[in-house]
Amino acid sequence: MKPVLVWFKRDLRVDDHEALTHALLEGPVLPVYVVEPGYWANDYTSGRQWQFVRESIAALDSELTGLGQPLWTAVGDVVEVLERLHSRFGFQVMHSHQETGPDWTFQRDRAVKAWCESRDIQWIEHKQHGVIRGLSDRARWAQQWGAVMDAPRLARPAALPLVARPPKPAVDVVAHVSIADERLVGSQPGGSVEAETLLNSFLQTRGERYRGGMSSPNTAETVCSRLSPHFALGTISVRTAWQESQAQRARFQSEKSAEAKRWSASLKSFGSRLHWHCHFIQKLETEPRIEFEEVHRGFIGFRPIEETRLDWLERFEQGQLGWPFVDACLRCLAQTGWLNFRMRAMLVAVASYHLWINWRETAHVLGRWFTDFEAGIHFSQIQMQSGVTGINANRVYAPIKQSMDQDPDGRFIKRWVPELEAVPVAWIHTPWRMPVSMQHQCGCLIGRDYPEPVGDPVQMAREARERLTNWISTHDLSGEAQRVLKQHGSRLRQARPRYGKKANSPQLSLDV
Ligand SMILES: Cc1cc2nc3c(=O)[nH]c(=O)nc-3n(C[C@H](O)[C@H](O)[C@H](O)COP(=O)(O)OP(=O)(O)OC[C@H]3O[C@@H](n4cnc5c(N)ncnc54)[C@H](O)[C@@H]3O)c2cc1C
């Protein structure tokens, strides 16, 4: 009997795996993963992401081997790999999950589709989560998302009949792939077991203070779920996290204690974010051009890429802007691969408004740094925080205020910017204002041990606001804003086009 091929992509798990479950109903399964050097040459990829993928491939292979059929892993162009497997096994059906990725994977999928058609192979793509392919109307999206999330989860297969052993075990194949190795501080390990452990610890202990603790980088590190790289690579399904968190929430909702109230509020917030996960990816699914072009076409040319000051971009990449809290966030992200939402948003606001860096430049720098790089969330969020979507409030974060609010005692700053270790708390947010005698006293001379600030943040923000106001007043933006709203706007609350006003969008209510 000819095997059915299951192409593992960003779904490296065996639980709640629609493609695997359906393929097994049709015959013995040949599970395949292809490492694609072409993908890893893109500007938004990095060694830290590869390390996470590599560990997740190894974990998947060990699960599949335990079930009876090890993973076939190959390096190269997917079409060429499929062609070779087809010559050997003659498979006629291939299952995979739908993938909403950057343009590179979109074009690759087109090539695979064309190849399947040329070989008369049926390629069946299953829903990966709440993103709806071919969606024509955002109005019913939330219900459709709910239907996917509330549907029963699919059990892991009891066994996989052996089709054939691969020529080389997956770990040996991936060991020889050379993609920049990065040594991070406390990087997150890949694999489904890790994902389940994280979900459990979040639901049992860490998540209680999620709502109050997600905004400060001091607390976010532990109270946030940290599941993002796992969702990005599908080592756990979003549905699993949704169902387990909502079951836990239901248990607490009937209780009156302060602890139960905290849990209930936190798990409600967590559920909203799982919703946003798909809400943002849906934008790229519906309009793939937003990887390259402003969501609101009226903002094309607003912040020309040629105007990006390369010296400022370099200081941004090096965490050497001279604004301690921003530098701490940049260095934390560069060294760990993770940062909480609020601080990611602040970094983009600083890059876009204060430094006037084009969002595409920022998207690539940050994309490489995020272990959890997820194109749909990433490009949509970067554009939203850069003020070019036309339907979201413009948040020009004040970096010094954020510093005082989120890190009042400078603990986070001192952790990531050790040259400021001896600076008294009174000066930690603005060390350039420290009297020179004090600088000598604490052994930190500004301009020698720590850079002069890139500019006055208040003045730079004022200039940015003026440029934005000027653009809005000299361009007719309302028609395109209506289109964006219709195509991408959340329907959970009544949204409307906004330019530079206070937030009313649920994606911007930050639970503080
Ligand atoms: C500029 C910018 C870029 C971002 N790029 C990415 C990215 O490439 N990949 C990515 O997964 N997230 C991205 N986010 C969203 C968010 O910051 C991360 O999902 C979150 O910090 C990951 O940590 P966590 O898993 O502990 O999240 P939790 O707070 O525990 O949330 C649970 C899950 O909900 C989803 N989620 C949380 N917040 C958001 C949000 N605001 N929008 C959409 N989904 C959300 C994520 O899947 C996350 O894992 C970005 C945010 C900003 C401001």
Kindly describe this structure.
α1 links the parallel β1 and β2. Helices cover 52% and strands 5% of the residues. The radius of gyration is 24 Å and the shape is globular. It is built from 24 helices and five strands. α12 packs antiparallel against α13 and α13 packs across α18. The protein has three domains: 125 residues, HUPs (Rossmann fold, 3-Layer(aba) Sandwich); 94 residues, Serine Threonine Protein Phosphatase 5, Tetratricopeptide repeat, CATH 1.25.40; 219 residues, DNA Cyclobutane Dipyrimidine Photolyase, subunit A, domain 3, CATH 1.10.579.10. A five-stranded parallel β-sheet has the order 3-2-1-4-5, with helices on both faces. The C terminus is likely disordered. It is mostly helical and 512 residues long. Bound molecules: flavin-adenine dinucleotide. The site of flavin-adenine dinucleotide has 28 residues, from α11, α13, α16 and α18.
Summarize it.
With 512 residues, the chain is mostly helical. It contains 24 helices and 5 strands. The protein is 52% helix and 5% strand.
CATH architecture of the largest domain: Orthogonal Bundle
* Contiguous helical run count: 24
- Helix/strand-derived class? mainly alpha
The low-confidence runs, each spanning 5 or more residues with pLDDT under 50, are 499-512
**CATH homologous superfamily name of the largest domain?**
DNA Cyclobutane Dipyrimidine Photolyase, subunit A, domain 3
* Element-level helix/strand string: EHEHHEHEHEHHHHHHHHHHHHHHHHHHH
Helix coverage percent: 40-55%
Number of domains: 3
Measured by DSSP, the beta-strand proportion falls in 5-15%
Radius of gyration: 24 Å
- Strand order across the biggest sheet? 3-2-1-4-5
CATH topology of the largest domain: DNA Cyclobutane Dipyrimidine Photolyase, subunit A, domain 3
Main β-sheet description: 5 strands, parallel
Which small-molecule species are bound to the chains here? flavin-adenine dinucleotide
The average pLDDT score comes to: 94
The quaternary organization reads as single chain
Shape: globular
Query: Which class of the largest domain in CATH terms?
Result: Mainly Alpha
Number of strands: 5
